[in-house]
TrEMBL record:
It comes from the Bacteria. This is Uncharacterized protein. It comes from Niabella soli DSM 19437.
Length: 82
């Protein structure tokens, strides 16, 4: 998916958890987060995503290291799960 496609989907929602399908790996559920480098990463189609199992910890600490960076070109589908 392109950066514009991903950005438009996540922009419309208020902090949802997405299931993210990939071309070459299993899907994950996670939360897209905005950090100080969000715009720079978005331009390159990279996205910080906190895995669903770590969202509560992220909410408490705000630790961006709980997220992993994924390349949006590998995404095939985004779907809101909750």
């Amino acid at each position: 998916m392109t950066s514009e496609q991903i950005g438009s989907v996540i922009k419309k929602q208020n902090r949802p958890v997405f299931e993210i399908w990939f071309k070459s790996r299993s899907s994950i559920k996670g939360l897209f987060i905005q950090t100080t480098d969000y715009n720079e990463l978005k331009l390159k189609n990279f996205w910080r995503i906190v895995d669903e199992s770590r969202i509560a910890e992220y909410d408490k600490t705000g630790n961006k290291d709980l997220a992993r960076v994924f390349y949006g070109d590998g995404f095939t589908k985004l779907e809101i799960t909750g």
